[in-house]
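Researcher: Please predict.
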Amino acid sequence: MNKKFTILLFIVVFQSWNIIYAQQHPHILLLDGEEESLQKMTYSDRMWANLHQDILSECDKMLSLPQLQREKIGMRLLHVSRESLHRIFYLSYAYRMTEEEKYLERAEKEMLTVSNFTDWNPSHFLDVAEMTLGVSIGYDWLYPQLSRESRKIISNAIIQKGLTPSLDKKYNWFLDAKHNWNQVCNAGMVFGALAVYEEDTTFCKSIIDRSIQSVSLPMREYDPDGAYPEGYAYWEYGTSFNVLLLSALKKIDYPCDALSAIPGFISTAKYYQQMVGSTGTSFNYSDCGDESGLTPAMFWFADKSGDSSLLWNEKKYINSEYRDNYLANRLLPAAMIWGSKMPLNQIQAPENLMWTGKGTTPVALMRTSWADENAIYVGLKGGTAGSNHAHMDAGSFVMDADGVRWAMDFGKQDYESLESKKLQIWSNSQDSERWKVFRYNNYVHNTLTVNGKLHNVTGYAPLISSSDNPQLMNAIVDLSTVFKNDLSSSKRGISIVDKRYVVIQDEVEANADSVALIRWSMLTSADVKITGKNKVELKKDGKTLRMEIAGKLPVEIKTWSTQSPNDYDAPNPGTTVVGFECQVPKGKKAFFTVALLPEGAKFNKKEIQSLNKWETK
């Protein structure tokens, strides 16, 4: 095709799109008339019908709630922005599906309330982004029914309090970020620009195009396999808003196909799915909680990939047991849109019992079954303490068996509880105050500590091998640079042996000129009893797990308190760190093998072999 003709055709098509687009509302996520397919889905599938009805019931509760106030907590207005998005998205959905005036009137009132705020707190731009996204959905979806005066007030707020502050260099540093801030903030700006596009097409197009270019930065962080650097909870945050951005642009055929083709992104849903253990608790490394629940973005990934097994966990969450959880999700109506082609009663379990991903924060996730709630599950991570939201937890792991999480992670502490004490927690440098926080440093994670020191923040633990062989499902990380000043080398392997028990094996070498004091630790909420020279018994919920330790050097089994003397640290009741200490002589190599044995499992020490003999791929 002639090059000039191609360019001309693109201009004509794009200009035609501009003309059509600027004259039509709604055009964000759900076009006019598409409600019918959603209604058919709720008629034909009981689970979808229940979810739809739950949204309407939640909207009925919203009708009597007091109006939101511009009240910050510390530096953030985020809780208000999120509640605004929650209310407007739900109420707008309810009106479009039922045409009941009560939902329209309340949604309009919600939008006018926040539009009259002095600002949306641009100094913490996540607040602006979520507020803009929610107001934009309501404005676009309810545009034909809004009064001319309301349209003017709301559109002016989107432009002046949402889009315009994103041009200020004091606030728009997120454009160069490679983490969730970029994804959330750009999604908010795209929704705002799409909502008021007809007000100033040139300005709004520049916002959208800027966001398409910017959001490619965090999307490249999923490369090569889909592992998300910031962990499970931040995957739900950043990736969900990223998907909102892509979905909104794709709906109106705005040119952005290159984004979906970025390596690792479309496969990242498998990472998220595999991060949930057999107990239903997530692998909550970094600043993440251990909660899990319905995630609308998974329906987008299932649709795009054609893999309905990605919804295995989501299907479980759509029932009354998890009702409060999913109704707290401010993006829930998006699940109805993205999942409209998915019959939930036909979803099968995933085929793979193991998933590994490399990148900034490499992980290995393995289990013995998807269907058995008593199955063994292990998650292992590598990475670096120098990445966003990271802890000093390279080599850390979690472990489930018999319906109990035996090896756990504290995860996050509320940021305001630390910021209010004037701690500077947003630096990852070696001498940062961040590492004074009890939950953030290595002493309370399921990893090694050498010579009582903090991990090296510039160290990086890669995933160097793995195998999904059911007789020895395993993965190995190299921790050498994490301990570069205290050990010549350090490798950790974790395996599920013959689907019966878990082995954690560490192989270390002390520096030639110094003894290395190794501390091996595991955080647990079980009751701990030392039962022998190399044995420990853990009990919880009527179940028992035995820990046996093997190695050529003598070890001293110990427990450590999880209660910090610092007034800024969160309390950690009902938890214990259990493990051992051992001195490795100068220049000597040592190995430590720890077997975690569910009830009925037996550990054969004769089966111990060096990591270089573990089957790998």
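Model: Residues 5-13 have pLDDT under 50 and may be disordered.
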